[in-house]
Amino acid sequence: MKMSENSSVADHLNDFNTVVNMLALVTIEFDEEVRALLILCSLPESWNSLVMAVSNSVPANSKLKFEDVVGVILSEEMRRKISGESSTSGNALTVETRGRQKNRGNRGKSKDRARSKSKNKIVCWNCGKPGHAKKDCWELRDKKKQQEENKEENVAIG
């Protein structure tokens, strides 16, 4: 099951989940890492750089998480839509920008690199909500607080 170049990621994810659920009905189940790898392998060739980045970003002792991979894929689709880049035009855009620049007056002044990303464009890998990164996730912070409170209660009881 391969995603076509110009189809929506959301549609592809829905189709993928439908197939996984149908297989689960006949007792064929996949663990989280296998589902993550399957969804990465089902992306079209224009997504190869993202697939490689995600595959190489996992530490040796940990596994890919399906929810994290889905978050990365959805974020990449959003980035492509915002930048006006279609699935197939990604490589063409990099080729078109090569060559001599028309405006060489600002040589050495990299204004674009100094600016950070706008917070509203960032999507959390934990909860999937825009406006913050995983390290600043409110849900994750609340879970950690709850776990600490539970530990304190267990120590007080024991």
TrEMBL record:
Keywords: Metal-binding, Zinc, Zinc-finger. The keyword Zinc applies. Gene3D superfamilies: Zinc finger, CCHC-type. The keyword Metal-binding applies. Residues 81-119 are annotated as: Disordered. One of its GO terms (molecular function) is zinc ion binding. Residues 84-94 have a biased composition (Polar residues). Residues 124-137 form the CCHC-type domain. It comes from the Eukaryota. InterPro entries: Znf_CCHC (IPR001878), Znf_CCHC_sf (IPR036875). This is CCHC-type domain-containing protein. It comes from Taxus chinensis.
